[in-house]
Design goal:
- The protein has 302 residues and is an alpha+beta fold.
- It has two domains: 2-120, Aminopeptidase; 129-301, 3-Layer(aba) Sandwich (Aminopeptidase).
- The protein is built from nine helices and 15 strands.
- The strands form three sheets. The protein has a seven-stranded mixed beta sheet. Strands 1, 2, 3, 4, 5 and 6 form a six-stranded mixed beta sheet that branches.
- Strand 10 and strand 11 form a beta hairpin.
- Helix 2 (27-35) crosses helix 7 and helix 5 packs across helix 8.
- The longest helix is centred in the middle third of the chain and has 18 residues, at 170-187.
């Protein structure tokens, strides 16, 4: 295995049009991180002359001395690579990023298995999420919903709720970003900065890379969701539900309408975002009840 540090955006983007990958491995995500003051390194992984993988690392200095590089939910494997080949690629990545010494290179694979991690030390347990296969038709997706989730959707569809797409100019969805910032402050959780969203859309240069859906009851906002589209995949990035509208099923209706729109845009896989059954049981139950597959990744390795 060898690395191609000169891989270009066109090659990268074309590869991810047919292979679903995590948001953190999208080229435009890296551009957004850079726009916000971060740094990234990207390489292609070659087996002979065949491009078999992609790896995007975010990099920073720890204590002003140690150079750390983290490949979050990568590498993305474009071909079938056996465990020995993956292990060889990881060894090459650890040596071939051009980082000075001392350095710390971490890999957090987007897999549930430990393939390719032989000889590596796990330094963090795995992240859990729910993945929804959007290659199914809407009838099959609806049949896969948990009964209570589907009943809430049915009730919302018969209600006075009106679902619409927000515009994709920042001024048209800023309300949801500001709401998200308020949620973080009140609940005390950390996440990627809200400014990443407009930076990502700017890097994409395509308004269809953003989907914002909102449910209104009269003049009152009841629910909102924001999705980022990357290649043939999408990520549920921000969600908000008015506590006073919880019983209306607005959130269920917004997600359901978003699924239909994402399918129209060619999205094959929807990442519903992290699930935490300890501190966020209600949100986790909402996501799991869509019928998606719960995935717990293998962890982060040095």
């Amino acid at each position: 295995m060898r690395l191609d540090p000169d891989i270009n955006r066109i090659t990268w983007d074309i590869a991810l049009m047919s292979r679903p990958a995590a948001l953190q491995q999208d080229w435009s995500y890296g551009e957004a991180v850079t726009a916000l003051g971060g740094a990234v390194r990207r390489v292609g992984i070659l087996d002979g002359n065949t491009l078999v993988g992609l790896a995007q690392f975010t990099t920073r200095r720890i204590g002003g001395v140690v150079q750390m590089a983290l490949c979050t939910r990568g590498p993305v494997w474009l071909e079938d690579v056996d465990p020995a080949g993956k292990a060889a690629a990881i060894r090459t990545l650890r040596k071939g990023l051009g980082l000075g010494w001392p350095r710390l290179t971490l890999v957090s694979p987007d897999t549930e298995t430990f393939e390719g991690m032989a000889g590596r030390s796990r330094v963090m347990t795995g992240y859990s999420t729910v993945m929804l296969d959007l290659t199914q038709d809407l009838e099959a997706l609806r049949a896969g919903l948990d009964r209570k989730w589907r009943n809430r959707l049915n009730a919302a569809e018969k209600s006075d709720l009106v679902v619409q797409q927000n515009g994709t100019k920042l001024a048209q969805y800023r309300w949801l970003l500001e709401t998200e910032e308020g949620q973080r402050a009140s609940r005390g959780y950390r996440s990627t900065p809200a400014a990443l969203v407009p930076a990502f859309v700017e890097a994409k240069g395509d308004r269809n890379s953003l989907l914002v859906m909102r449910a209104d009851e009269g003049r009152h906002k009841s629910s909102g969701m924001l999705f980022l589209i990357h290649g043939c995949a999408a990520t549920y990035h921000i969600g908000w539900n008015d506590p006073d509208s919880h019983a209306t099923g607005a959130h269920n209706l917004v997600l359901w309408r978003a699924i239909g729109e994402l399918q129209k845009r060619g999205v094959a896989q929807l990442d519903l975002g992290g699930v935490n059954t300890v501190t966020g049981a209600g949100i986790a139950r909402f996501k799991i009840s869509t019928g998606g597959r719960v995935v717990t990744l293998c962890g982060t390795f040095h």
